[in-house]
Design brief:
about 220 residues, alpha/beta, Rossmann fold, seven-stranded mixed beta sheet, two-stranded antiparallel sheet, 9 strands, RibA-like_sf, zinc, GTP_cyclohydro_II, GTP binding, riboflavin biosynthesis
């Protein structure tokens, strides 16, 4: 924890890490969740974990969902994010318990909304999602999962069954001290608008997407 010098010359502590701020019931079309709100003092982001049922400590069914305004709110078919979020919420309800950590500041794999839209414009001209980020002078993936691990620890979660097709997300969570006992596939049927993006995620970002093998009629 660092210190600031106050107006009277006194040292005041500057908070670091993640802090639970509020806990509120959140009825949704999927079921009644508990919305646990956090403040990330390191980055300034406001975060939320949607908790369903009595989650316990071990092998908790969990989704770390990166914010995606275009997919989550607007129903974009460029990606599968909105469908993955809905599928994860349904899954934890069907399980009877689980957590969906919604990670703000992760838009466009961490590059921000406007940069993501610029990258999408370049993809419309023929670049793939990796090439587009690099053409903008931006990292391919700038996301950090330390805050997610901190939120899970605050909730008492020690190990998870992680709903993700991304092995890098699993590895990052384990580096931050949360054990991943199982990686649960979250496979969404592709459409013509998303197939190129999904194939790039599989071929260049190591996502496990075996269901794409059955799609041969879109080039």
């Amino acid at each position: 924890m660092t210190e600031n010098i106050g107006v009277l010359g006194e040292k005041t502590p500057q908070r670091t890490g993640v802090e639970r701020v509020v806990n509120a019931p959140l009825p949704t079309v999927y079921g009644k969740f508990q919305a646990v709100g956090y403040l990330d003092h390191d980055r300034g982001d406001e975060q939320v974990a949607l908790v369903y049922g009595d989650i316990g400590t071990d092998r908790v069914l969990t989704r770390l969902h990166s914010e995606c305004l275009t997919g989550d709110a607007f129903g974009s078919q460029h990606c599968e994010c909105g469908d993955q979020l809905a599928a994860a919420l349904r899954a934890v309800v069907a399980e009877g318990a689980g957590v969906v950590v919604y990670l703000r500041g992760h838009e466009g794999r961490g590059i921000g909304l406007l940069a993501k839209l610029r990258a999408m414009a370049l993809q419309a001209e023929g670049l793939d999602t990796v090439e587009a980020n690099l053409a903008l002078g931006l990292p391919v993936d700038a996301r950090d999962y330390g805050v997610a691990a901190g939120m899970l620890r605050d909730l008492g979660v020690e190990s998870v069954r992680l709903m993700s097709n991304n092995p890098r997300k699993r590895d990052a969570l384990q580096r931050h001290g949360v054990q991943v006992t199982e990686q649960v596939p979250l496979l969404i049927p592709p459409c013509e608008s998303s197939i190129t993006y999904l194939r790039t995620k599989r071929e260049r970002l190591d996502h496990h997407l075996p269901h794409l093998d059955a799609v041969a009629h879109w080039s």
